[in-house]
Please model this.
Amino acid sequence: MPYRSAISAAVVRPLLAVCLASGAGGAAAESPAYFGLKGGVVTPDVVGLDYAINGGLTMGYAWGQAALEAEFTATVIDGGTDFVETSWQLTSLGLYAALRGTGSVYWKARAGVMDERLRFNTVGIALTGDNSPWSLGGGVGFQLRSGRRVEGELTWLDKDILLWSVGVLF
Model:
């Protein structure tokens, strides 16, 4: 679909700019408390639904390699469907226990609980539903000289929904 390249350019370029800008500056002291920004693609494994673009915030507190994270994401570009004048959005709020490896390139794994709200908009009518499943995720991260981290993750939000994201932690 032709709009996909426009969406990719609209999302990928700002994320790359944030990631590159976060590497500038002097070395920062490592703090156990952190927050971050993330963006990504929500991919439903459901016939007739196309992807949506979500953005969000992460807050956490680390004890060595272990951390407790809270994360909120919301749709910034609605997902398409095969149905005329119908789109969908997903909002999630999760609380996770996370583990990270050490080094400038590291692994990350997390598990927790998540409240998910799914909304379909069709011809002026909004249909909503929610689910509070367990959620799992993992990925790879990069520790920058500035002390910031850039993490790429895959998070299983529901049995049929994945979030592929890139985030910057401050």
Remarks:
- The beta strands are 33-44, 52-63, 66-77, 79-80, 86-100, 105-122, 125-131, 134-143, 149-158, 161-169.
- The first strand starts at residue 33 and ends at 44.
- The chain has one domain: 3-24+35-169.
- Residues 3-24+35-169 form a domain with the Porin fold (CATH 2.40.160.20).
